[in-house]
Amino acid sequence: MKVMIDLCVVPLGVGVSLSPYIAACQKVLEEAGLKTALHSYGTNIEGEWDEVFAAVKRCHEVIHQMGAPRVTTTIKVGTRTDRLQSMEDKINSVKAKM
Amino acid sequence: MKVMIDLCVVPLGVGVSLSPYIAACQKVLEEAGLKTALHSYGTNIEGEWDEVFAAVKRCHEVIHQMGAPRVTTTIKVGTRTDRLQSMEDKINSVKAKM
Amino acid sequence: MKVMIDLCVVPLGVGVSLSPYIAACQKVLEEAGLKTALHSYGTNIEGEWDEVFAAVKRCHEVIHQMGAPRVTTTIKVGTRTDRLQSMEDKINSVKAKM
Amino acid sequence: MKVMIDLCVVPLGVGVSLSPYIAACQKVLEEAGLKTALHSYGTNIEGEWDEVFAAVKRCHEVIHQMGAPRVTTTIKVGTRTDRLQSMEDKINSVKAKM
Question: Between chains, do C76 and B27 touch, taking CB under 8 Å as contact?
């Protein structure tokens, strides 16, 4: 099952500068070979369900290993059976109607 | 790794009445033996990471099997390494400060 | 316009114990006279759009006043024009199908 | 109070093609003079709290006027008092650590 998610990982108990943790997650996603697009409040990720969620789990593990005692993450998850739709398709579909 | 999540599953292309789909998800979670608490905008779930996310995947599969061509889900995911904390602990911790 | 929201406020830069901040938000919501239901990963709130979002803004202000330099919040927002539906209606609607 | 949000609006009861509704929201945001960045699972928005949330309310109103009987939206909301940080700053901050 193909999935598109939006991932926003928030480590707690490490102060206000979260970028080193987000950068570590980007590396996890890259090593997993997933297609990603970073934005200002999260990361779009596209791939097979099991691979995508294995990478999400790995992000939590890596952030804890970096010293964060607590992590709270928000994920949006989209699946569809009617047709294939890439991350670019979604953006182009909106822009075509503007 | 223990996890607490908040799951809000939204089937698209099936009209405005979503409760049959939410009820089907509740059954999936129950059959998975997970501890859950239904609220008005989602379901709190507590358990081992892999079991919890296997159930989330199963929810998407079941909703598609029920005929929904598209599903968009919002998940909040919490993990912590400093201490164990149950769903009740979190509520009691807030109430103790009120 | 009536709205039902799910509010999850996360102060950053204040360590891992967030309950004093969540308790302060509960007080803000109470003083605003809003109908609320606390759960393990947020708070369901029901009311008029403007009153509900004024209270959400007040929560951010209060948390900053308590010393948190950064706040990241996740909100789910539901509106419908087809019929009135209370927080209890939504839960009962799911339970009736189980 | 400056705010950065991520907005994901989902009309229900209108089938699976949501792009006309998302395009209408983009127009609302543009007319409000807000700085935005569309991505594959939402839109980043930056501005003053009251202006940003007035536009979010207007999005719900417009989508209902277009015929959607129900709307469910997910919003992430960030505020900080320690320093100003633009949408680009957040992305650059992560990229500098990669």
Answer: no
